[in-house]
Amino acid sequence: MTQPxxxxxxxxxxxxxxxxxALDPLGVSLVQCATLAEAKQALTTEVxxxxxxxxxxxxxxxxxxxxWMQASLSLQGAACRTVVFSGxxxxxxxxxxxxxxVWRVLHKPASVGALMACVSETLASPSGEEPAALAVAPLVSxxxxxxxxxxxxxxxxxxxxxxxxxxPQDVIEGDLAVAAQDAQALRRVAHNLKSVLTMLGEAQAxxxxxxxxxxxxxxxxxxxxxxxxxLRQHVLLMVSIQGKN
Length: 245
Fold this sequence. Notes:
Elements: E1 5-9, H1 13-23, E2 29-33, H2 36-45, E3 50-53, E4 56-57, E5 60-61, H3 62-75, E6 81-86, H4 91-99, E7 104-107, H5 112-124, H6 144-149, H7 153-179, H8 183-199, H9 203-218, H10 221-244
Parallel strand pairs: 1-2, 1-3, 3-6, 6-7
Antiparallel strand pairs: 4-5
């Protein structure tokens, strides 16, 4: 039996790893893309019945991909559903998503159960059905293992180890962005860390990342630079503590 193909468009390797771990029990063939260019190439090669995409990407917005898909794939008669996986959907963006016939929105950070349920339902539902209602952001529990990993402590610990191994590279990328005063690059780093830190239950660090993302998005260089110093300290402390255990 052929495995259903799911295309994941996400630039953060830690989020890609989380999605891979979450969907592994479903037996899907997960094709991972880090950029819009990679996603378009993958869809040109073989259309997937489900595309799961972030909106914040290095070479543009996921909205650009959704518009391209609506124009080009419809001409090919391809049956393809889209799910947006994003940490920030404002009313204007939601209206745009509705106009692009997005099937569902999963708000970052989403739980293992929410990802599995969404993908299972999307692949199982007839393609002629109307788009599902866009989901609202979930309430976050104080217990990240229960909230995001279905109570599976081993899965949480495996993901945490992957995050701690990646964090030094995130710090390097953030430092380079601050040194170059590249607000958009730092916004991407903070945006990705915000979701990952929330899933790990690091509420204070996640809030710091959220503030940093907002300052970078507004181009406020001074608070952005100061905020990054605080965020990098949080992240490096986590790595240091783990190294002593």
